[in-house]
Structures are given as structure tokens and as C-alpha cells.
Write a structure and sequence with these properties.
Largest sheet: 8 strands, mixed
Radius of gyration: 20 Å
Structural class: alpha/beta
CATH superfamily of the largest domain: Dihydrodipicolinate Reductase, domain 2
Number of strands: 14
Oligomer: single chain
Low-confidence stretches: none
Shape: globular
Distance between the termini: 49 Å
Strand order of the largest sheet: 13-12-11-7-10-9-8-14
CATH topology of the largest domain: Dihydrodipicolinate Reductase, domain 2
Length: about 375
């Protein structure tokens, strides 16, 4: 039986990710799952029955549900704008799955609509709430790495052909917004930006290496220059086979230290100036060499605890009258970086400077 305290939350879209959202809401403090919406009655009824909430196939009726305060958007990426605009107009706060949308123009319309209607817009990036991420960020911000020289993200994941065949929106520009970078790697690219700072320019190559019937990339490599002067690499792929999947990694090196994070653990924690807490950190977050990557080979093999913390942060921001940790403008950053990579890759690796003024014209990767 679902609890009924706190803010009433409704989920739009009842595909696979909706189950993780529902579990996160069920376990969170300050909110409860009030209702779900899907154009598919079978999908909506399945989630509603499992989590003891109301089921809707009419979106206006869903928005009119008594006690609905927050709408969580979990439709395909290119179908986030319309439910967001309607929810904002109805005075509902919004938490939206990554990416917020598939073009900068559509993202900006979402941000503007929420601003104009005085409602919250929060993005979903659960890896930001990992404990190792917090420890990493504290070390960077306190200057323990010194001048940052290199900052890299590695997402060598795998998806089967069946994964792409299971939904005609997967691997399309219109509804997926991209491939391995926009759908899978965006979480780690967000972490790279969060930890290493703003990106000044990129140059990149991308292709469709092993999958058939998709428009977008399943393999990409970018060289990144940060506004700080640091250099880096982003590797994002769904074509790197592993039975359990390779963990996503963020590596940041500086003149005084280096940290390599693998999912929610560290493989490297080295500094010129040691601190007493370092031994405890190494012991607590030591990486297991054989550990499977979270969601690296199986998209359903993820923990919902990060989503729960993400939702709880949004609720705290509403209660306190503050902006959420990942508001619309913050969630926009990783999208812009990825679109810059696409622009470079689609023009033969030419350097692209940020900020982007418009979404690049997209062509199918071969």
C-alpha cells in the first residue's frame, strides 16, 4: 500500500523507467505517488495497480487529479515538451527525465514556460547524488587537485540489437535526440561538467558501429577543451560488449592530485598532500575490479536510490522556496555539450565552440 503523505506526484509515461520512478517515490520522504498517465491503458493500469494509485489516459483529467502537485515526465525524450507546457500552465511543478528535450530550442521553451507560470523545473540526474560524487566534488572545490590538467569521461557500454528494435523511438533524432551520447552517456557527461566545469569547445568523431536500423551513433569520441584551460576526452558507446557491462568512469587529474571515479567508487585517490580522512575514503569507496557497471549492459539493472534522492531534493527545494540542485538551466548543460559533439562529428571533426546558438542540423550516422 503506497503512503499518502507529502506532495502528490504523478508520472507521465509508463514504460520501463516509470517503475524506477514509482519505487523511488514510494520510498521517498515528502511525497507519494498519486496517479499515472499513459496513452496505453494497459501500461497505465499495470503501474497503477502495482503502486496503488489512479490511472489516466486523458492528460487533462490526469492534471486535474485532486492533490496532484508535481508531474514527473518519463515519456521518450523528444516527447517531453508538450506535457511540460501543459503541466506548467496548470500550475504543476515538473521533474523531467534526462535529457530535458532533444533540441536547445525545445529545452528553452520548457524553461521559459516554467518561469512564466512560477513552477519548478528539475532534471533527473541520479548519479549527481552518489556519495562518491559528493566526496569527489568536495576534493575538487577545496583545491586538492591543484590546477586541473585533464578531465575525462568514459562510458563503454553495450546495448543489444533487440534493445533498439524494442521501440521505434530508440536511436532516432526526433524522439531519442541522439544515440549512445544523448541516451546513455549523458549522465556521466553531466558529472564531467559538474566536476570539471564549463566546456569551451569540442572536436569529435562518431559513427554507427554495430547496430542496424538506427539513425544515430552507437560510438563517439570527443576531445574537450574546458574554459579553465584543461583538456579532456569523452568516449561514449553502446557497442562495447561485456556480459556485465563496463562501469562508467570520470577521471580528473591536476598538478597536485588525481581522482578516478568508477560509478560510485574510486580506483585512484592520490594527492601530494595527504589528509587523515584519505584512508577512510579509500577503504569505503575502494572499487571492486570485477564489479558490473550500473546499467552498462542491462538498462533495467539500476538502483532507484539515486532517483529517490533526486526527488527528495526537488521536494526540499519546494518546501524551502529554493531552486533544486539540478534545475532546468543546469540540466540544459549536458545537452548543449552533446549537441556540440554531434555538430563536430557531423562536420567531419571540425572544432565547435560553446555556447551553441542553435541545435545542429542532424544527419544519419553511417
Amino acid at each position: 500500500m503506497a503512503k499518502k503523505g507529502g506532495y502528490g506526484i504523478g508520472i507521465v509515461g509508463c514504460g520501463m523507467i516509470a517503475d524506477f520512478h514509482a519505487r523511488a517515490i514510494e520510498g521517498m520522504k515528502g511525497g507519494h505517488l498519486a496517479c499515472v498517465f499513459s496513452r496505453s491503458k494497459a501500461n497505465a493500469d499495470r503501474v497503477a495497480k502495482a503502486f496503488d494509485c489512479a490511472s489516466y489516459q486523458n492528460y487533462k483529467a490526469f492534471l486535474d487529479h485532486p492533490g496532484l502537485d508535481i508531474v514527473v515526465i518519463a515519456t521518450p525524450s523528444g516527447a517531453h515538451l508538450e506535457p511540460c507546457l501543459q503541466a506548467a500552465k496548470a500550475g504543476k511543478h515538473i521533474i523531467c527525465e534526462k535529457p530535458l528535450e532533444v533540441t536547445l530550442e525545445r529545452v528553452d521553451r520548457m524553461i521559459q514556460a516554467c518561469d512564466q507560470n512560477g513552477v519548478m523545473l528539475a532534471g533527473i540526474f541520479p548519479r549527481r547524488f552518489n556519495e562518491a560524487t559528493t566526496v569527489f566534488k568536495r576534493a575538487v572545490d577545496s583545491g586538492r587537485l591543484g590546477k586541473i590538467t585533464l578531465a575525462d569521461a568514459y562510458i563503454k557500454w553495450y546495448r543489444t540489437q533487440d534493445y533498439y528494435d524494442s521501440g521505434d523511438w530508440r536511436g532516432t533524432w526526433m524522439l531519442d535526440g541522439g544515440g549512445a551520447l544523448m541516451n546513455q552517456s549523458i549522465h556521466t557527461i553531466d558529472l564531467l561538467y559538474y566536476l570539471a566545469g564549463e566546456v569551451a569547445s569540442v572536436c569529435a568523431y562518431a559513427d554507427r558501429a554495430i547496430h542496424e536500423g538506427i539513425e544515430t551513433e552507437d560510438n563517439a569520441v570527443a576531445i574537450v577543451k574546458f574554459t579553465s584551460g584543461a583538456l579532456g576526452v569523452i568516449e561514449g558507446s553502446t557497442s562495447c560488449f561485456s556480459p556485465t557491462g563496463h562501469p562508467a568512469e570520470v577521471h580528473i587529474c591536476g598538478g597536485d592530485g588525481s581522482i578516478f571515479m568508477r560509478d560510485n567508487s574510486f580506483t585512484v585517490w592520490d594527492f601530494k598532500k595527504k589528509k587523515p580522512a584519505d584512508k577512510k575514503i579509500i577503504k569505503k569507496f575502494r572499487a571492486d575490479p570485477g564489479e558490473a557497471g550500473a546499467g552498462a549492459a542491462d538498462p533495467s539493472a539500476i538502483d532507484f536510490s539515486g532517483h529517490q534522492k533526486n526527488f527528495e531534493d526537488a521536494v526540499r527545494s519546494l518546501k524551502g522556496g529554493n531552486k533544486p540542485f539540478i534545475d532546468g538551466r543546469e540540466a540544459r548543460k549536458s545537452i548543449e555539450i552533446i549537441l556540440a559533439i554531434y555538430r563536430s562529428a557531423l562536420t567531419g571533426g571540425k572544432p565547435v565552440r560553446l555556447p551553441l546558438k542553435r541545435t545542429p542540423v542532424r544527419r544519419n550516422f553511417s
